[in-house]
């Protein structure tokens, strides 16, 4: 017996078959690899929609920060590579592996409002099929006593894929304001 014919879709000019509908009641299973600081959420996932991001890592990064500021989870996830090994670390948080864990973390962040982060300084190292951006982010944080400015140091890694440049890693850490950084370095003679 032949079941109903899957619907066709077109992404990026390529024809494909839509995945079968999935159960809307998904159970999330948190699994830990050998590292207790790594979170992976195993759940079925639909193929990510290819974003129209253009042809550079800069354009993908612009879309990523725009998605943060708008709280747009679909745009944000379209900036990521469609790969189970993508990784994200938020300041003080665990290492998140895979699209499901990353999506869940950003959805939790967006449930409290948008993320007002903007790249203030970007240092780029770009090769043929990969790019590393070291970013100083200016972040506005709402605390009980009002709005505060924070500095976050982020490293964003991009790979050139058939769909365009996509993020494969985002690692963010609390930072020091760039002008204060010079004073800190002058006081510490050891680099690492």
From TrEMBL:
State the residue spans of region: Disordered: 1-25
Q: Does the keyword Transcription apply?
A: no
InterPro entries reported for this sequence: NTF2-like_dom_sf, SnoaL-like
The UniProt record lists the SnoaL-like domain at: 62-175
Entry GO MF terms: isomerase activity
Q: Which controlled-vocabulary keywords does the entry list? A: Isomerase
Gene3D superfamilies the record matches: 3.10.450.50
Q: What is this protein called?
A: Ketosteroid isomerase-like protein
Identify the species of origin: Acidovorax delafieldii (Pseudomonas delafieldii)
